[in-house]
Amino acid sequence: MTSLLPQTRPTRPQTGDNGEYTNRPLSPLKKRARRIDRILTYVPLALFLIFTLVPFYWMLLFAFRPSGSTSLVPWPITFEHFETVWNGSGFGIYFKNSLFVAVMSLLTSTVIALLGGYALARFKFRGKTLFLVAMLCTQFVPGAMMLIPLFEIFNAVGLTDSLWSLIISDTVFHLPLSLVLMSGFIRNVPVELEEAAWVDGCTRIQGFRLVVLPLLKPGIVAVGSFAFISAWNNFLFAIMFISSQDQFTVPVGLSYLLGEFGADFGALAAGGVIAIIPVVLLFAYVQKFLVQGLSAGAVKG
Amino acid sequence: MMRKNKGPSLKRNRRGGTLVGVAAIITAALGLGACGTGTDSSGAEGGDVVLELWDTDTRPERTENLKKLISMFEEKNPSIKVNYLGLPTDSYMQKISTAIATKATPDIITPKASDISALVAQKALAPLDEKFEGGGWDAKVSPAMTKSSKAASPDGKLYLTPATSLADVIYYRSDFFKNAGLSAPTSWDDFYAVADKLTDKSTGKFGYTLRGGNGFFSQFVQMVYPQAGVDTFFREDGTSTLNDPAVVAAAEDYVDLYGKDTAESDLTADFKTMVAQFGSGGAAMLSHSIGSYPTHVAALGADKVAAVAPFPSKSGKSVLSGRMTTGFAMFETSKHKEAAWKFLEYTMSVEGNSFWAQKSGYLPGNLEVAKESWVTENPAMQTSIKALENKDAVVLEQPFYLPEFNSITTTEMLPEWQRVLQKQLSVKDFLTQSAEKLTKAQQKYMKK
After folding, report:
1. Does B49-165+324-381 carry CATH code 1.10.443.10?
2. pLDDT on residue A286
3. A107 and chain B: CB distance < 8 Å anywhere?
């Protein structure tokens, strides 16, 4: 956005033969039009920002100011709520569990999506369209409907009360989207690149690893971060499949802070801050890949 | 061509290396997580019998208290171990339903009185009458609470131990009253007058906070029925008293508070909003159960919160609302019923009951415990117990035994109630149509 500024506000006016294409001082009329343009851009943006940021500010405010205070700035700053939540409510354990589940789901989702996506993009096999439609259809089934059958299955294989039940169910529920996304990314890598690698003596696996995989970074980041976030935020499976306190995850821990007869807003906000930290950090790191990833192939035929 | 291609491919190879590096870091983080979870799963076996207890109202302080209660019990009964599991208060029922469907229920649970009829309908809970009377608990525990506990079940049996109980009170900011030179209200007229006096819209201070959102019905009953002097939900023939002229008149007074002596935003206020408003000084009075007393004291300090019981009606009749038993229940599928009953007994015994009721801010069920100083010195509790001492006082039992009661008073009535507050529907029409629904449910129940 900042790179546009020199163009809109020329510092060294020049007059050329063809005046229309050079930087000249703008006529007052044009200046006004630009100003209106800018107002029309920034005012809605600012309004939108207020809507997005106020809840965050509310959360930070309640998390950092002492209970009972009604000030609008979190000063004097206090960490008592974090202390309560981390030690008193056991967020330390929940955080570790959530991290384990989310990272494992990310790994399994990405690996399976890479393998499956490659097959969908590069191979022709019988029933491929049917398979894709079936994948799409599974997205229509809400997770809540699967609870009892899933519970029975996990019970039969002895996986209830284990974090692995969450990893498996999160991966499975996320897989259709990951597969479709990933196969799209792979299809965008020209097959000729791979063929060139084969001509150079690579096997198919080597060709995939050395040529295709490095080009898939945006795809891997997009699929992986979606998998991470959906596993990190999953409340329903965590509450249903886990039946011991020290195996619960952060979303369940957060819901503890809302009782029937009482709500400690400070602790709730501190818990919220803890819960969003990994997601914010992740996005801060991956956002450049994500933008690449989402727009990749947009202009290619 | 070939050579040209090699360059970028080598470069990409290096990028592949960083990818592998990232994967290695992730795997390392994973190992850390795996170690943590691996050690947690062991060490459950201590005694001979292991009981599973699921709590349905998990909050940090309550969890701590319940765990202490469990360890006190385990000390007395070294052969029994109780595993605690806290479930979130807004989604526990789904977990329990799945557990019932998959036969994976725990031994003990802390259901709400309003859950009993749904659980009994699924034959999930074990009746406790025999054990209760056999142990002589009917003489040691408050008869009013036992009665109310039985009244919550569709077949009149005892499923929920009458360990503790809630009662409705009106909380008020004693500091506001003092500053304004007002004394605590003693009648309904007084209450409305005070609410008006303490309202100052220009500073955003209101006399009362009215529950317009989720869970509005309990506040509505608490304020309207005692004022109307109506002590039952249904008449003999099963028709609802909601459209009784006295109830309608009282409800009109109550609805008039909205917008006049309450914030406009109360239209959607649920419990959390009300507490936040009371705690921040936005409202001088709040109706709720004694269970929230510790929350108010934590937010404001004991010197700024006081409580009065809902007042007698104009005809002098004293109706007590919100006497909801909160106790423990046992699952029918429990394999250790004897051990589970021992725990249930402990929560009614002097030691267990005194600890649990005091820490949770509930009225104790055990008659000995009710005489202890922490009960007599708590203003909200004193108000509730004194109200019960009045011989003419009648406890208003809510029909939790009706399977439809919850859905009628929550999902069905809530949008209509909000229309009433917005003056789009008259109080009378609202109560007449709601009464019809409740009458239908009650008459269906009576036919069985």
Report:
1. no
2. 83
3. yes
Calculate the alpha carbon distances from A3 to A6, A9, A125, A266, B83 in Å.
7, 11, 48, 42, 62
pTM: 0.74
Higher per-residue pLDDT: B10 or B254: B254
Same domain, A204 and A60: no
**A30 band by pLDDT with thresholds 50, 70 and 90:** confident
Per-residue tokens: B230: 């109506």
- What is the percent of chain B with per-residue pLDDT over 90, rounded to a whole number? 51
Which CATH number applies to B168-322+402-447? 3.40.190.10
- Do B226 and B281 meet the contact criterion of CB atoms below 8 Å apart? no
Residues B125, B318 contacting (CB under 8 angstroms): no
- Helix, strand, coil % (nearest 5) of chain B? 55, 10, 35
pLDDT in the model for residue B261:
93
DSSP state of B176: H
CA distance, residue B244 to nearest chain A CA (Å): 31
Taking only the tens place, the pLDDT of each residue in B105-161 is: 999 999 988 889 889 989 999 999 999 999 999 999 988 889 889 988 889 999 999
Is A56 a member of any domain? yes
Question: Does A71 reside within a domain?
Answer: yes
When CB atoms are compared, the residue of B40, B104, B275 closest to A263 is B275
B87/A262 Cβ within 8 A = no
CATH, residue A123 = 1.10.3720.10
> Domain coordinates of chain B in residue numbers?
49-165+324-381, 168-322+402-447
Same domain, A119 and A95: yes
Nearest residue to B231 via CA among B323, B336, B325: B323
- What range does the domain containing A74 cover? 27-78
B104–A84 CB contact, under 8 Å:
no
Q: Do domains B49-165+324-381 and B168-322+402-447 have the same CATH topology?
A: yes
Q: Rounded to whole angstroms, how far apart are CA atoms B149 and B113? A: 7
